[in-house]
Amino acid sequence: MARRVSVPRADDIFRPTGEIGPVRAVPDSGPDTEAPPGPRRPSGRVRHDEKMTVYVTSDELLDLEHARLVLRRTHGLAVDRGRLVREAISLILADFEVHGDDSALVQRLTEQ
């Protein structure tokens, strides 16, 4: 006897991931609303509601995977590629906020 496979409905696949509040294009710039910038921290292991696709070369993907394996083997850190990329983004943006024109990001982008 053939076995039927249960397939999810479209409502289950395309459900919203969370409440989306109003979005402001420009943040308030008044002195009462500005908080002093704190150190930039990556989001870590939380549920992420936003998605971004980035295309990399085969060598870049191998380098990323190699870094992930070295972190696991040498430091006992079991991280996935997504967390590794979020950490890298956090580091480079924090450096950019602190050093501006002298940041590694500006220097690397102006080399090309």
UniProtKB/TrEMBL annotation:
<protein>
    <submittedName>
        <fullName>Uncharacterized protein</fullName>
    </submittedName>
</protein>
<feature type="region of interest" description="Disordered">
    <location>
        <begin position="1"/>
        <end position="48"/>
    </location>
</feature>
